[in-house]
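<instruction>
Derive structure tokens from the sequence
<data>
Labelled lines for chain and fold:
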Amino acid sequence: MDSNSSPPSTISIVSTFTSPFEDSPRANNSQSSTRKPLSLWPGMYHSPVTNALWETRSQIFEKLLDPPLDAPPQRELLNKTPSQSRTSVLYNFSSDYILREQYRDPWNEVRIGKLLEDLDALAGTISVKHCADIDSTTRPLYLITASVDKMMLKKPISVDVDLKIVGAVIWVGHSSIEIQLDVTQPPNGSVDSEESIALVANFIFVARDYKTGKAAPVNRLLPETDREKLLFGAAEGRNKLMKRKRTEGKKGIIENGEVNRLEALLAEGRIFCDMPALADRDSILLRDTRLENSLICQPQQRNIHGRIFGGFLMQVAFELAYSTAYVFAGVMPSFIEVDHVDFLRPVDVGDFLRFKSCVLYTECEHTDQPLINIEVVAHVTRPELKSSEVSNRFYFTFTVRPEAKAKINGFRIRKVVPATEEEARRILERMEADSMHSNF
């Protein structure tokens, strides 16, 4: 791809809905007859960001819609810099009131679920830009979201002030790519600074050969600036840590002397199961915190590969997690962070998807900000085959809004205890993962 076809450095985001107060019907598209068949287009479940990214990168995505499977794979890997994949999007909230309405939550802040969807869309576009081959005769790579690293909300994101997301590839392995996205919103009347950063997100994508489905090598990354080299080194360390954790497996909990913690958790749960009248009223069984949501995956929610868009799954999971925290705490929750997201297998159009959530554990040491840790697991269920497979795992952390907590005298968050050994292990594994991540 030559420099003349490069997209603008900043993509301005506009509303995708027409105003009900304006007469602005959609114009007929004179080029529609030359477009790809409708079945090859991505679904119409699009946020304004997804729509803008599609239009901007159509010259690359057009090839992905109908990949030439008989074409040879990329013959020679390219050397690319982070600046070549860097892309930013700008939400003109201050001037586009329809766009504001699409993103506004009840507290006049940005809906986090929609933001997660947009982050996934932007990360996907950046990964495609990095992997793009200048040779138009080769077949493209199939890029899949593998996981999302911890992302913490550093400050509330207003829907009245312009918002910007900037992202680039920061690390590349043999067939995996890490993209970092910075969400910034400067305080009113100030210029961009460290205080502007509202959230930082890291996405891992893996590349597969379109024809064979096997892991495929990706273009190399050559960091240039000191900051790019620092980000590359940090990502390399995270990658090695994840590989070591996968090698060690789940036996580490027992081997590391965690038997006593496991037994202590189970002992509390047994009181609830065997002697409920004597159980601690400030605790609750994990199974009593569960919520569930089910849906049939529709064509409107598919991505350019015909699979269900990962950002849509993240949005559904977040909103179920939010509801779970709300019902558990009894007051309006406040989002703090996405602890981790695993995309274990793709989800197809027509799949029966079940999202199951629970409160895994709580942290009440700091009474000013009690923490509620939520797990959401997505299952692809096939009733005709009597099978159910885990497709995604999501972990979120919430607290409660101070103004909501202030209205209730003696407000407390209950402790969650397991009823089974499997639940106890899940709690300890998540605690250990959070501890390792925060200490890295």
About this structure: DSSP finds eleven helices and 16 strands in the chain. The two ends are 38 Å apart (CA to CA). The longest helix spans residues 226-248.
